[in-house]
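Design a sequence for this backbone.
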């Protein structure tokens, strides 16, 4: 089999092919003079084939699927691969060609996956889902509805052990001495330094990462972004304060719970597939812009995740700013981890608010 770097979207596979260092023409996507992988010559120099085999290996041919497997979920492998993964960049025809050649050369893949329709039995196996999926047999959207309308504190819809292990992987340290910022819309006089801290418990209003009555200091890595975060208008006065960390803080980076590649860790590929779509929805909810008109209930799902981070002993959670992808926000549960070192009042001049038709 000969394929090339352009046949794939996945960063790990692309890197592995480039590392072989072979140039040539790709018979599959027809790209000329590019980084290619030739299984006859390069099999021992890279794990491209192991990676692809680990994905193909999870598919079971129709004749071996349990009788209860839903018929509408059985599809041909090339369609299934393109739907399930972000690994291949080619058309279904090109993926089919690749799969046929891999299956042909492989010693342990079932050759029927290339001919029959396929499925993944674990996706409909309740016992498997209970042990391997963070949402058990449910989905994030079902859980959100339950949280909102039925029971806020106790739920069978989430596997906390799994959630803990997934979130733990995003643990990071923000070092002592880092400056973070907070802005508040003020009057001409501005706020005192004391007033720039988070409101005390009991009077704290609910936010993305805290419930009503639980104090939380929302900080941002970029001074200017804080002004957008509080949705200040032109000619508003704002007070911006600088908070310097007085110790390292250990936080969960909720902006990176989705992985870029299934090959990044040695995780079971079916479990990866099951969890990835739920994680993507959680990450999207965390980054979703909130408007002043949103109900407090819209914060519940992200409050649930932040609350769990707090319960696990983390100092805070990090998530992307909705307004500026190069900035990040930190919701700090314990505000004694920083000192307010500077504050100043500003008048907002022009804001380049862009209008989007709705
Ligand atoms: Zn190619």
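Sequence:
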């Amino acid at each position: 089999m000969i394929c090339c770097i352009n046949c794939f979207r996945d960063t790990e596979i692309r890197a592995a092919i480039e590392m072989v260092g072979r140039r040539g023409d790709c018979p599959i996507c027809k790209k000329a003079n590019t980084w290619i992988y030739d299984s006859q010559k390069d099999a021992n120099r890279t794990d491209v084939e192991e990676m692809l085999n680990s994905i193909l290996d999870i598919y079971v041919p129709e004749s071996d699927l349990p009788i209860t497997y839903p018929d509408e979920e059985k599809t041909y492998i090339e369609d299934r691969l393109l739907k399930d993964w972000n690994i291949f960049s080619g058309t279904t025809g090109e993926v089919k060609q690749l799969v046929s050649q891999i299956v042909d050369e492989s010693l342990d893949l079932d050759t029927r996956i290339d001919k029959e329709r396929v499925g993944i039995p674990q996706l409909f196996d309740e016992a498997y889902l209970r042990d391997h999926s963070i949402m058990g047999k449910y989905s994030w959207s079902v859980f959100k509805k339950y949280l909102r309308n039925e029971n806020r504190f106790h739920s069978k819809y989430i596997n906390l052990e799994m959630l803990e292990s997934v979130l733990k992987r995003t643990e990071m340290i923000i070092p002592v001495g880092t400056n973070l910022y907070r802005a508040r819309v003020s009057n001409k006089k501005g706020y005192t330094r004391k007033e720039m801290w988070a409101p005390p418990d009991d009077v704290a209003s609910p936010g993305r990462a805290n419930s009503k009555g639980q104090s939380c200091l929302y900080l941002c890595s970029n001074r200017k972004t804080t002004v957008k975060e509080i949705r200040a208008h032109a000619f508003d006065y704002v007070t911006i304060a600088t908070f310097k960390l007085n110790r390292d803080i250990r936080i969960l980076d909720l902006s990176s719970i989705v992985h870029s590649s299934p090959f990044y860790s040695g995780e079971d590929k079916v479990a990866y597939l099951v969890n990835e779509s739920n994680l993507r929805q959680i990450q999207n909810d965390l980054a979703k812009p909130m408007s002043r008109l949103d109900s407090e209930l819209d914060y519940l799902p992200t409050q649930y995740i932040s609350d769990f981070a707090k319960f696990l002993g983390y100092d805070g959670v990090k998530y992307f700013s909705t307004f500026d992808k190069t900035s990040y926000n930190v919701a700090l549960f314990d505000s004694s981890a920083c000192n307010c070192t500077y504050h100043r009042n500003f008048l907002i001049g022009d804001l380049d608010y862009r209008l989007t038709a709705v």
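The chain has three domains: 2-119, 123-168, 171-347.
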